[in-house]
Design a protein that fits this description.
The chain is an alpha+beta fold. The chain contains two helices and six strands.
Length: about 110
C-alpha cells in the first residue's frame, strides 16, 4: 500500500476528485492548508496598498491505495492539477506498513 499526499491549488480540487473517482479511488482526506515553496508567497494590492502574502492557500489531499494503483494516481493528479504556473503544488508518495478499518477490524488492502 502507498499513501499519496498531494498539495494543489484550491480551484483544482473538483477536477482532481472527479479524475480520481474515474480510476477507482474510493476515498480521500482533504485539508485546507497554507504554505509556500520557492515563490515565497506573493504580493497583493488591497485598497491601493501593496502587501506581502507569505502563506498561500492550498489543498492537501491524502489518499491510501494499493501499490499497483499508486503510479496511476500520481499521473492523474499531476495531469489534472497542472496549470503550468508557479505554485501548482507537489506530490509525495510514502509506503504504508498497515491499514486497519476501525469499525470492522479489517486490515491491509481490505481496510482501504
Amino acid at each position: 500500500m502507498k499513501k499519496i499526499e498531494a498539495v494543489i491549488k484550491p480551484f483544482k480540487l473538483d477536477d482532481v476528485k472527479d479524475a480520481l473517482n474515474q480510476i477507482g479511488v474510493t476515498g480521500m482526506t482533504i485539508n485546507e492548508v497554507k504554505g509556500f515553496g520557492r515563490q515565497r508567497g506573493h504580493k497583493e494590492v488591497y485598497r491601493g496598498a501593496e502587501y506581502q502574502v507569505d502563506f498561500v492557500p492550498k489543498i492537501k489531499i491524502d489518499i491510501v491505495v494499493d501499490s499497483s494503483l499508486s503510479d496511476q494516481v500520481v499521473e492523474v493528479i499531476s495531469k489534472t492539477a497542472h496549470t503550468g504556473k508557479i505554485g501548482d503544488g507537489k506530490i509525495f508518495v510514502f509506503p504504508i506498513a498497515e491499514a486497519i478499518r476501525i469499525r470492522t477490524g479489517e486490515s491491509g488492502k481490505d481496510a482501504i
